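EI: anyone free to look at a 300-residue chain?
SC: sure, send it
EI:
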Amino acid sequence: MTETTSARIAADLRSRIAAGEFAPGDRVPSTRELTRRWGVAMATATRALSLLQDEGVLRSVRGVGTVVAVRPSSARPARRRGAGPSPARDDIVRAAITIADAEGPATLSMRRIAADLGIPTMTLYQHVASKDELVTLMIDRAFGEEPLPAQASPHWREALEIAARLEWAVFRRHPWLAPAMSLTRPQLVPSALRYTEWVLAALDGLGLDPDRAFNIHIMVFSYVRGMAVNLESEAQAEAESGLTADEWMDAHAGTLTSLAAGGDFPHVRRISVLDFDLDLDALFELGLRCLLDGLRGVLP
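SC: here you go
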């Protein structure tokens, strides 16, 4: 039944798009709107939009929602093979970051970047050997956007706060970045290593052996990155569902209320009554303060 209804909703949207009701780039009804109009569950409306995304009719745009994909006839015409100058590597990296920032990492491909630059896909490989190398270059450029101060901080805590907040700012600007990075197999890029050097310099002279100092650096970085992973997953969920985090919570408020009403979760019930508002920036600051307070036990 759900599959049939999803297909009907998808067919209706498809015909409205074909009739010109929605132009390329226009936002289509969100899952919440579809739920109200068709009287279906959220999962059914989400499935309908997913069907059209799979067909290439729709695409998700970060901060906007689900929009009509650009038709081939309205896309920027590609250059003929051999025509025009080849792009520099920096142009390719900037184009890749623009796509990942706007639409998320799932849409990032060598073919998509080439299309945006108006060049044949194979031209990219003259400058970037693989997508993995491209992602590494993107990481290097992203961290390079937030240079550390020229003057080092005299106290370890202040130095670690500076590094953590600048890293958070980078992750905030580029939600794809945290999931793209690896802790166990880190991408070794100069701009990120400057952060490592900054933290190790701040911990130098405190009587720590090099391994302990490096573990502290990894611990702080892991905290920042771990918080930042939520940015990309939330951006993707919002683009796919058409609901902000607050709207999603409102839609599920009845479930939470009913679970808490039985008396088994009195403290959870108090939170729901207070209408808790999750603020990732405030949560980041609280966690950073607790983490650095804890380090006082091992650092002077």
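EI: The domain at 150-295 is CATH 1.10.357.10 (Tetracycline Repressor; domain 2).
SC: 👍
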